[in-house]
Amino acid sequence: xxxYDVFTNPSRSAADGIPYVVVIQSAQLDALATRLTMPxxxxxxxTKVPTxxxxxxxxxxxxxxxxxxxxxxxxxxxxxxxVDNVAAQASALVAAMDAVLxxx
Length: 104
Prior knowledge:
Strand content: 25-35%
Distance between the termini: 30 Å
Number of helices: 1
Oligomer: single chain
Number of strands: 7
Largest sheet: 7 strands, antiparallel
Order of helices and strands: EEEEEEEH
Radius of gyration: 13 Å
Structural class: alpha+beta
């Protein structure tokens, strides 16, 4: 499964505010049954968020905030067909994970 592929959120209960998840795990770990994912959430324009931790990622023309502090593994079998790939925006996702691990 390619790194930075975007999938529809498999959690129906959370999909309203978090329509997508992006795989941030290296494809070298594809033998594992899970994939480390980062939720991509819709935010009101008035909502203030730390941009390093929650960068704006564009998926299918829609601006979403990546929530690095909510990164979590999901079973790979739940991630069926990618809707996009955001590899061109990888540096923002990596910086967000670095903010989680190392601080701002």
